[in-house]
Amino acid sequence: MKNLFLKSLLPAVFALPVMAALPEGHPAPDFQAQASLAGKAFNYTLEDALKKGPVVVYFYPSAYTGGCNLQAHSFAVNHEKFAAAGASIVGVSLDSIERLNDFSADPNYCASKFPVASDADGKISGHYDIAVKAAAPGKTDSRGVEINHGFAERTTFVITPNGKIAATLGGLKPEENVAKALEIVEKLAADRPKAN
């Protein structure tokens, strides 16, 4: 009877959202990574991006998987709205740079609108307190290619130019995540003092 109770309890425990990510107001850890934009790899640094305005750093499980495809497409479709609010976007996953070169240029997903960074060793995820789980053996992506890296928990950070986290968004569906991030950067833009 006890074993039956434990077996029924375990799925419920693992279904709970894990919100251990860095909170609002916390300094955002700087990072440098190989990233891809429009299929071309380059060195991305958060510090450089913040010099131009707020940055939306979104962690996602894997390129070419259902929710991640939807989220990347939603960020691409709304890219001009983020830019109008003075914000840039960067996606971060444990995908290799080779996978990200394809994903960043794919017209159905990132559509060459924003970079995606490779956190292949999981260090960036670790600095942001993002939970990472191992891929199930034999797991394949939406193209049928085997996924051989860990999955970062879907979490988005809106980071202000002074390097502080303005918002931490977790536990949302992919499109809701993008809509909420856009709402926050538009509010930051509205609250910015106007130049005379």
Automatic annotation (TrEMBL):
Residue ranges of the TM segments: none
Instruction: State which Enzyme Commission number(s) the record gives.
Output: 1.11.1.24
The question of whether Metal-binding is a record keyword is answered with no
Q: List UniProt keywords, sorted A-Z.
A: Antioxidant, Disulfide bond, Oxidoreductase, Peroxidase, Redox-active center, Signal
Cleavable signal peptide: 1-20
Q: Tell me which InterPro entries the record gives.
A: AhpC/TSA (IPR000866), Peroxiredoxin_BCP/PrxQ (IPR050924), Thioredoxin-like_sf (IPR036249), Thioredoxin_domain (IPR013766)
Any idea where the Thioredoxin domain is?
Answer: 22-190
Looking up PANTHER family in the UniProt record yields:
AHPC_TSA FAMILY PROTEIN, THIOREDOXIN-DEPENDENT PEROXIDE REDUCTASE
Q: What is the recorded name of this protein?
A: thioredoxin-dependent peroxiredoxin
